[in-house]
Amino acid sequence: MSSSEEAIPEFHSCSGCEELLDVSTFGPLETAVCPKCKAETKVKSTFGSYTLKSRYAIGGMSVVFVAQDNTLNREVAIKVLNEDYSVNETRVAAFENEARLTAAVNHPNVIDVYTVGHAYGRFYLVMELLKGKSFESIMSKRGALPEKEVIDIALQVAAGLQAAQQSGMVHRDVKPGNILIDKNGHAKLLDFGLALITQGGSAQAEEIWATPFYTPPEALERGNEDFRSDIYAFGATLYHALAGRPPFETTSTSNKVLRRAKQTIPRLTKVADWISPATGEAIDRMMAYKPKDRWASYPEVIEALEHARCNVGKHATAPVHGDNRRKRRRKKGKLMTVLGILFGLAAIGGALAVWQPWNSTEKKDTSATPPKPPVAIKSWEPATVGGQDKTDRLVKALNEARSLVEEKKFTDSEVSFEKLATDTSLPASTRAWAALEAAVSAYFDARSLDAKSHATKLVPYLESEKDSDNVKGSLLQISRVLRRPEPPSIEQFPKDLNNIINRMGTLALTLKMWEQGKWKEAVPWLQKIQSLQLEENFEWFKIYQTIAGLYLEDAETYAEVVDLPPVTSPEIAIEQERALHAAQEKLHFKSRLRYNIRARHAYLLRIKKGLESRPSEKVILDWSVTLNQVAEKTAISRFNEALTLIEENAEKAPKNGLWAWNFLTEQSIGFIDDLKKMENWEVKSKEGIALKPNGANVLGIILANDKTLEYRDLDPASLIRAHTIAREGLEPAENRSRLVHAIAYAWQIGLTDEAESQAEQLAETDEQFRSDWKRVIVGLSEE
């Protein structure tokens, strides 16, 4: 009904005196007071075969009531346009569209629509009555939510969104308020009021109504929207839930301001450092500014979330909420003072930090209490526990768990080993050993955080006894390395593999290295493990040698596709797509390599689509090829050569992207120039050898014999440390200039966390750098 039409009078009998009351201007279930007897009467409560019972919720355009279905004797929810919009033809049409679209989606994670109808001149829809809380109210009450809880909800919502896409629509208003969670943790997607029909393609909305925090950039720009727009809003919702704050903070409604804010959203792990990298990576990609850089399908989103869930672990770090974050900041000054003291003490205690029990020949003072005779590591067996019956039972339990490993039932083997690790009747070293084998099983199943959890359990088992021996010391050292966030370095591996502890420890460290992306570095250690000659009583270790061989096969498979040439035609894309599919089929384990192949495959599909449908994409593709070549140069600190490549291909580059790469590369050249000026400084090789350069040039450092050791052979973190020390005492302007050099160098060499941390600190006090760095971030998004 249009606003120009004259309303038809509506009457309702008074509940007190049965006087007819004119209720034309009343809304559903409102109270009318009889002018004659003053009785109060609820009016407009009957909608077809449904009787309204109470108001359930009020939204921006509609009201939801709890109603009784008089035919099927059940409670339902009835959604009715509110008074302001019930006379607006556009809103009525959108409301009818919502009913039609929602009814078309039949999925357990999407609210069910039972029927539609008209009553009192208003359109209404009848839905299932959901009892629970909105995701928004849960977030508002609890702040940042636990990672596993959010991922479990996310997987359900992703399935619902996939069902919507398969029905040919985009939701267009995915946000915390439109996700309902019941008491069992079951999630439902609500409110398709802004949905568009796309039929698998894209569509353009006439208006922007979605919530700014979650609105995709293309909606702000009035561009075409498709399912990737929902992926963005979904990612922003998850970002908010995990970080305890929206992706950005602004009260502006200006499209320009909002677009700029969405271009500079910090990575999730930067604002929520308790989140696992896999989760951060999955959500950051969902929120890529350009649709082409987001996940290319819901199966990819679901797989990324599944991968993230596998890496959350059973003992994930709890989120840090607002008050505690503020306390952290207040304590920062005190902490830096303490760190200064500890830094001084580090020089004294440095030798202790690198001590390794498996290599140590140091003798301890035994004049106080004589310790137990040390157990010789070479002869130690985890199944030696005392009485023969007890030993036999333990041997049987270990063999059964290892049989599960052999069958690749890694979750089951992990549980079996963990059961032994928690058996308090066993010696501490035996329990710790079982925890180590449990960690190895978790690594086999690509669950690094669970492996770390088992490694953490080693410590209380071993430290529960006062006396120590070589066995316990070795197991503790393995635990320390496994618990560290960074991949193991070469010097942290045992120097020999002549005993079972060093062998299993080496396998665990190698698997950690593999899962952290250092698969090439892991290969030599896998080869060593595979070629070991075993003593008769350690024949069971052949199971692990066989698996090491399978990992080597995976490495060979991945090596064939990791360095595929740039894609310059659809034919090359198809050829590489086949190669990736074949490689994925050959992989034995669901490790990081499988995930990397899927990510590369998704990239190929985007490139292929661009080449087939948009010839202009060739320009962007050419720039991508250039950036790959630039990255090869910057990775080995050949910044002058990288700058030449950028300048030679400038006409292919997007404007902001060209500026960003010029800025970073020129500043990195400045870093190398700074090294040339430094005197009396130290640096480390990648093998950890300390070096004192006589100088530096564009290729590397100059050694005492006047030979040049290239930057590619040096530890970049040690270069940055030396550069930082050399800045002390410089004039503020020069110090600032060199700091910018170091930030750019760290970024281009791959130390992005270090670069971002330094950049954020400098941006707080330096307006020019803040402007430059924002431009860098925007430019890099145009790769």
Word description of this protein:
By secondary structure, the chain is of the alpha+beta class. The chain has five domains: 11-128, 2-Layer Sandwich (Phosphorylase Kinase, domain 1), CATH 3.30.200.20; 133-322, Transferase(Phosphotransferase) domain 1 (Transferase(Phosphotransferase), domain 1), CATH 1.10.510.10; 387-555, Serine Threonine Protein Phosphatase 5, Tetratricopeptide repeat, CATH 1.25.40; 570-613; 636-780, no CATH class. It contains 27 helices and 20 strands. Strands 5-6-7-8-10-9 form a six-stranded antiparallel sheet, with helices on one face. It has a three-stranded antiparallel sheet with strand order 11-13-14. β3 (31-33) and β4 form a beta hairpin. The longest helix is centred in the middle third of the chain and has 32 residues, at 322-353. It is globular. 35% of the residues are buried.
Summarize the structure.
The chain is of the alpha+beta class and 783 residues long. The protein is globular, with a radius of gyration of 32 Å. The two termini are 51 Å apart.
Please state the average pLDDT score. 77
Query: How would you describe the oligomerization state of the chains in this entry?
Result: single chain
The CATH superfamily of the largest domain is Transferase(Phosphotransferase) domain 1
Low-confidence stretches: 1-7, 195-210, 325-379, 614-620
Distance between the amino and carboxyl termini = 51 Å
Strand order, main sheet: write it out. 5-6-7-8-10-9
Looking at the overall shape, the CATH architecture of the largest domain is Orthogonal Bundle
